[in-house]
Amino acid sequence: MRYQITGKHIDIGDALQEHVTTELGSVLDKYGQRPTDATVVFSKAAHEYHCEANVHLSSGLNAAAKGSATEIYAAFESCAEKMDKQLRRYKRRLKDHHKDRPDPVEHIGAASYILANEADSGDDEPETLQPIIVAEMQTRIPSLSVGEAVMQMELAGAPVLVFRNEKKDGVNVVYRRDDGNIGWIDP
């Protein structure tokens, strides 16, 4: 498994990297997952350290967790506990998902755009109705069932997930509603 452990504007020592590798590895081994790579990013805001971990599983699903504390090791421990809780909660589904799917999740490429916020311009009326594109990127859309998409959204901690529905072969969206329920858009 590949680990990428970095810090935003802070130095990450060898001891912390070794600690992250051992602890995160033990959390992932406990649930029998086959991770391919993990990215752990540490940052500091005021007096608090933040840790974000993203783990890519061989089945094609991703698990993400965030933690924060006044000490960097405690921030990682908080993040690792959340990752452990997510994997424990979805262990049965992840194993069932892997049995039903002999091949990894397929992905299709798509363009992703970041648009400028018109409220920041200060003008009352925009000059044109076309939005200003700030950045253009490539993104990958997974081919999943609706249940797998909801699980992937929960594991990644994302508010919305766009996916290709395996059964209907069309693009669908699942999202977290304001009332706490999950919404599903099937055009």
From the 3D coordinates, which CATH architecture of the largest domain would you assign?
A: 2-Layer Sandwich
Separation of termini? Answer: 38 Å
Q: How many helical stretches?
A: 4
| CATH class membership of the largest domain | Alpha Beta
Description:
A hairpin with a 5-residue loop joins strand 8 (171-176) and strand 9 (182-185). The N and C termini lie far apart (38 Å). The protein is built from 4 helices and 9 strands; from the N terminus they run βαβββααββαβββ. The protein has helices at 14-30, 72-89, 91-100, 146-156; strands at residues 2-8, 35-45, 48-57, 62-69, 107-115, 133-144, 160-165, 171-176, 182-185. Helix 1 packs parallel to helix 2. The strands form 2 sheets. A 5-stranded mixed β-sheet has the order 5-6-7-8-9. It has a 4-stranded mixed β-sheet with strand order 1-2-3-4. The longest helix has 18 residues, at 72-89. It has 2 domains: 2-98, Double Stranded RNA Binding Domain (2-Layer Sandwich), CATH 3.30.160; 105-185, Sigma 54 modulation/S30EA ribosomal protein, C-terminal domain (SHC Adaptor Protein), CATH 3.30.505. The chain is α+β, with helices and mostly antiparallel strands and 187 residues long. The mean pLDDT is 82. The protein is globular, with a radius of gyration of 19 Å. This is Ribosome hibernation promoting factor. Belongs to the HPF/YfiA ribosome-associated protein family. Long HPF subfamily. Residues 130-183 form the Sigma 54 modulation/S30EA ribosomal protein C-terminal domain.
